[in-house]
Every structure is written in structure tokens, then in C-alpha cells.
Design brief:
GO terms for molecular function: zinc ion binding. Keywords: Metal-binding, Zinc, Zinc-finger. The chain is α+β, with helices and mostly antiparallel strands. It is built from two helices and 13 strands, in the order E-E-E-E-E-E-H-E-E-E-E-E-E-E-H. The radius of gyration is 21 Å and the shape is elongated.
Length: about 220
């Protein structure tokens, strides 16, 4: 990793493309000062006493009241808290919860009953540990040999089901592409006790991860 300085602040970034987390996004292009005469949020007119401020999350221009908070922004790898607008604040705090808590849970993994589709009419169940790789790019399946690490970019859809016995969202269906074919696998937090709770929390964290990837694949490029 290396330390770089941008107009928004200091950032610690990974140098090699194949080692960068898919959850990290690049800084937005700042709207030029000359293109904006009013605050993007409240429409107050800028002047001698009302200065312009750029949100580091979206790049839009705001007045001080609409862009006064400084918040940690790990998704852009900033070292220190940076100025963000009111609109971006709630999104950023939710993302920060993901970076501070959910990613650790995902990389630690959880025990699941794994169901894979061998062919059209045949399925195979095995107990294993599923976890996110340390570079956040792959799902790893420890304890089984029937499936290779799954690239997150190959996941086509995700669906969470409620276990009728426990009433909890403890079943995860993943549709993914492999060699041009669409395949399905199912993870179920099948063990009672503490491990089952870990599995349920892992599924919730992975659902949040998938939503982040899906949204930002549409919105902007990943660095």
C-alpha cells in the first residue's frame, strides 16, 4: 500500500489492481466552482459571507450549514475524517458500519450446511465454513472440494430465506455464473447454538455487501 495526497485529503491505497477490495471506490470529480452559484441542498446564494464547500463523497458544492460534518470515509481510503454533505452523511455512516463490523465478520466466516447443484436433478449437501477472502474479492469454502473460490463479480442474484423452524433469515441462495453456465448454491446456518447466530449475522452482512457491490457497479467505477 502507499500513501497519496489528493485535494480531498490523505489516502492509503493498494498499488496493485488485483489486490484492491471491490468495496473501495474512487474519489468523485469535483463540480467546478464557477459552475455553481447556489448551494446544491438549500439553494442559498454563495457570496462573500457564504463560502462554497465540496462534499468529498459526491463532489457537489454546498454551503457550510449543508456540508459541515467531518466523517470517516474508509470506502475511499481517507486517513482522516473528511467533509461530507447532509445527503451523503447517512449513507456514509451505514457504509462505515459495514467496514468496521461486517467485513470482519465476513472474513472470519461462519459454519453452514452447503447445498450445491451437481446436475439438473442432483444436489449435494456438506458442512463447511464459508468466508470472504482477505482481499474481499472471493467467497472461500473451507472443508469442501466441489467448488472453487467464487468471484463476487460472478454472482448473478442473491435471495435470503426465513427458516420456518427458527423464524430467522438463516438460508442464503446464490445464483452465479461459471464457464458461461448459470448455477445455484444454498447456504443454511444449520447448527444450533452460538454458531447458528454467527451464520445468521454472516448472511445479513453478506447481503449488505452484495447490495453495495450491486449499487456501485451501476453508479461508478471501482478503483
Amino acid at each position: 500500500k502507499k500513501l497519496i495526497k489528493s485535494k480531498s485529503g490523505l489516502r492509503i491505497v493498494t498499488e496493485k489492481e488485483d489486490q484492491r477490495s471491490p468495496f473501495i471506490i474512487q474519489e468523485p470529480q469535483w463540480v467546478p466552482d464557477k459552475e455553481t452559484t447556489n448551494c446544491t441542498n438549500c439553494s442559498v446564494k454563495f457570496g462573500f459571507t457564504t463560502r462554497k464547500h465540496h462534499c468529498r463523497r459526491c463532489g457537489q458544492i454546498f454551503c457550510n450549514l449543508c456540508c459541515e460534518k467531518k466523517v470517516e470515509l474508509p470506502r475511499m481510503c481517507f486517513v482522516d475524517p473528511v467533509r461530507i454533505c447532509l445527503t451523503c452523511e447517512s449513507l456514509t455512516r451505514r457504509e462505515n458500519k459495514f467496514f468496521q463490523k461486517d467485513l470482519k465478520l465476513l472474513t472470519n466466516g461462519a459454519i453452514f450446511l452447503f447445498r450445491s447443484q451437481k446436475n439438473v436433478n442432483t444436489y449435494q449437501d456438506q458442512l463447511m465454513r464459508c468466508k470472504l477472502s482477505l482481499d474481499h474479492r472471493y467467497l472461500l469454502f473451507d472443508g469442501i472440494e466441489i467448488i472453487e473460490p467464487l468471484d463476487l463479480n460472478h454472482i448473478l442474484s442473491l435471495k435470503v430465506h426465513c427458516d420456518k423452524l427458527s423464524g430467522s433469515n438463516s438460508i442464503l441462495d446464490l445464483e452465479y455464473s461459471q464457464n458461461g453456465d448459470s448455477k445455484m448454491l444454498t447456504l443454511a446456518a444449520a447448527i444450533d447454538g452460538p454458531e447458528k447466530k454467527v451464520g445468521i449475522n454472516w448472511i445479513a452482512a453478506f447481503q449488505e455487501a452484495y447490495n453495495m457491490l450491486d449499487k456501485f457497479n451501476d453508479d461508478q467505477p471501482v478503483i
